[in-house]
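FAQ: What does the model actually see?

It sees only this:
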Amino acid sequence: MSSTVRTNWDDLTNRDILRGGLRKIFDSTLKSEEVMYPEMYNVIKTDSYIERDVRMGGLGLAQSVVEGGNIPVQPPVLDTTKEYTQSKFGSGYRITFEMKKFNKIGLVKKLSASLAKAQRTTKDIEAHKLWNSPTATYTGYDTLNLGEAAHTCLDDTPSTYDNLGSAAISTTSIESALYYFKKAKNDQGQTISMKADTIYFEPTQMFTVDELLGSKGMPWEESNTKNPYTKFGLKQLPNNRLTSTTAWGVLAKKDDLFDVNIFTSVQPDLHFQDSPDTSRDSIVTSQQLFTWGYGDPRAVWVGNV
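And it is asked to produce this:
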C-alpha cells in the first residue's frame, strides 16, 4: 500500500473501507504500554549535542607525619572521559487533502497518536539495548562492559571489583548481590557501602522473585527461619523490555554512584506541514534527540543475561 493515506485506502483488494459504512478502526497498537527506561537510568535533560564526563579518583588515606615533618601533598587521579552524543529518531506519515476533509473516523488523530506512541516505544527499546547486552558491545570509563568480573579501579595496585553474577535467581545469588553492594570498592580501592534498592528481571521470573522476597519464612525451606531478604526493601521491577527470560540484576539506583544515564535534548514533537508539491496533501513528522550509556558501572550488579 502507498505511504500516502487516501480515501480509497486498500483499493488493491476493492475494499474501499474509508468511503462509507465503516463503524470504527480497531488498532491494538494504540494501547498504552509501560515505558521502563526511567526505572533503569538517570533521566537527564540537556541542551548540549555532546555531554562529556571525566572519571576521577580522589585523595587516598592520610599518612603519619613525624613532629616537624611536612604533610604530604597528594594529587587526584584523573582518568578517561566518557562522551554522550545525541542521536535523532524520527517517523511520519502523509495524508491527502481529500482524506483530511472527508474522513469521519478521526484517522488523522489516530495516526498522530500512533506516531507519538511509536516515538515513546522507540526510545524505550533503544535504551534497553544496554540492558539486553550487559556483557558485550557497550563500555564505560574502564573500557569494559557493564557486567564484568574484573572492573579496574584507579589506585596504584590497581584494585578490581566483580559485578557479574552469571547465576539464576536464588537465595545464593541474592546474597551475592547484597554482599557485593555492602563491600563495594571506590576508585582508591577502599571499601564503601552502597544500598541496593531495586531488583529488575524479565517477567517470567516474577513469581520466583516474589517467593524469594515476599515470603515470611525462608523461601523453599521447611523451617521456622525468618526470611532475611525482606528487610533489605528491594523494589521488584518486572521489565517487559528485557528480551532474555533469564535476565535479571540488582541496582543501587538511588545511590550517588549510580552512573547509567539517558540524556534528552529534544522530546518527541509533532510537526504538520504542506507537501512540497501542488497536491495540497499534508505531511506529519515527529523527531526526538537523545542518547544513553554509562561511565561507572559499580552501582549495577548483573545477575544474569
